[in-house]
Each structure stands twice: as structure tokens, then as C-alpha cells.
Amino acid sequence: xxxxxxxNGFFVELKNARVSILDRGFxxxxxxxxxxxxxxxxxxxLDLHLERLFSSALLIHLDLPVxxxxxxxxxxxxxxxxxxxxxxxxxxxxxxESASGLQxxxxxxxxxxxxxxxxxxxxxxxxxxxxxITLHPSSACKIIGVPLQVKSGNYLSQILLxxxxxxxxxMEAILLDDxxxxxxxxxxxxxxxxNGILKTPPLSEHVLPGITRxxxxxxxxxxxxxxxxxxxxxxxxxxxxxxxxxxxxxxxxPVRQASDIIIGNGKPGRLTRLLHQExxxxxxxxx
Length: 287
Fold this sequence. Notes:
Helix 6 (211-222) packs across helix 8. This protein has helices spanning 24-28, 46-59, 68-82, 124-129, 156-167, 211-222, 234-238, 270-285, and strands at residues 4-7, 10-13, 31-39, 42-43, 87-94, 111-118, 131-136, 172-176, 182-185, 189-194, 197-200, 227-229, 242-247, 251-258, 261-262. It has eight helices and 15 strands. It folds into two domains: 4-118, Aminotransferase class 4, branched-chain amino acid transferase, N-terminal domain (D-amino Acid Aminotransferase, Chain A, domain 1), CATH 3.30.470; 124-285, D-amino Acid Aminotransferase, Chain A, domain 2 (Alpha-Beta Barrel), CATH 3.20.10.10.
């Protein structure tokens, strides 16, 4: 069955979904996107994704063409029309078509796309064995002039860094800022656990407010696990008892090795497993 795409007010088959070569998303990466996940036909934390999208739009002076409630309805209806019980959802909004040049045309209508694809799970052994990561100095991504990290359409830096990580047989590249502090991965937030304390870098121009990141912090506080949002260095990763990555697609993914250094005993730790179990309970209980 051909995928059904929402494109600027219409539901069309994927083969007929086309965007102009004058679209600023195509020309400059001038836009935002959200990656959402549906479990059993229900979009997980849709409200948080839309909150992040609309907040990011304000930061880059992009007027979204619909209200938050309307956007939620569009996402839900696109999911329904594709009949996928478990799926990944890509919501993209760009500044739309305009003539050449960097000036923003406030009269140009934005481009809005919602695309659904079936969910492809990671191999189960990665959750049992953990994955490898590599650390990359002075590589943290940011958009100059924006005080917080946004999920923009320009992902060239992340693409190249991920390629470098894959060349080193690593699952993810962890980006360091110019001060040598850990920020995030190319597509994931990072957590460490040491002496029973859960830590993750604070939100900043380099660190995206990941939805799964937020849920993990909620779970930790609910279960009485001490947690801190504070900066840390590569050495803190190497000395950690447990390390894991979070994003919408992988949920909570344990790390066994960082730049050839084994983390803890080289196996997913107790707290990492507990947090993932509690995360899955929240998924099952969502309305």
C-alpha cells in the first residue's frame, strides 16, 4: 500500500508528494522537523513534540500555518490513513518558497509535511550487549543567534559526524563543545550514572530538549533516583558505572564502550534496565 502524506492541506500518495526547488527547506535547510513514534496506533507524547516545535518556530521567526491543536489533528489523521500500528512519524515545516536570497519573506506560506513510515526496530542484542560511542572534540552543533538548540532542517554536521563514527565501528558520535564539555550525540541525548546518581548535560544552545530525555528525568524523580542536569567531561563518561543514549526511535539504549574504553563491567547496568522497563510501562499506560 502506498504511503499517504499530508502536504500543505492535502493528503496525497507518496509518489505524488512534491516540494518546489524554490522551497527554503531545500535551498537552505531553513525549517524544523520533529520525529515522533506511534505505539499501537497512539502517538507517544505528541503534546511535548508540538510544544518543542512551536517553541523552536518562535526562536527562528517562523510562523506556523496551523494552531497546535490543528497540528495534532493532522498528525493523528495522517497516522490513521496509513494504518500502521507502530510507526515513525516525520513532521517537517519549512519557511516555504521564496526568491533567491537570505532575506525572510513573512508573506510566504510555510510548507508543512507529515510522513509516516513503518517502525524498524534495532536488533534486540544491542539492548542486551550495549553499543559503542566515540567522542569528538570541538564538534558541538549550534545555530548562531539562537539561545537554545532547535531541531533544524540543516543536519549536515550531524551527518558527517555520524559517518565518522560509523567508520570507527561506533553507533553514535558524542559531540564536545569548545570547552571540552559533553553535549549530545548526532541524534541522541546522553546520560551517565555514577555512584547511583543520574546525570545528563543541561539544555543549552548545544543540547536539544529531547522528549525521551524529559521522560527519563520524570521517571528518575518518580522512582527516587538522584538526578542532575549538569555539565561533565569525557573522563566522567569513561569513569561512569553506566552510560546510555536516548531518542524517540531507540528509547533507552545502553552504551558498553566509549572510544575504546569499556564502561563499567561492559554490560548494561541495573539502573539503565530499570529506567527502560519503567519507560515501557509509561508507553503501555498512555491514554
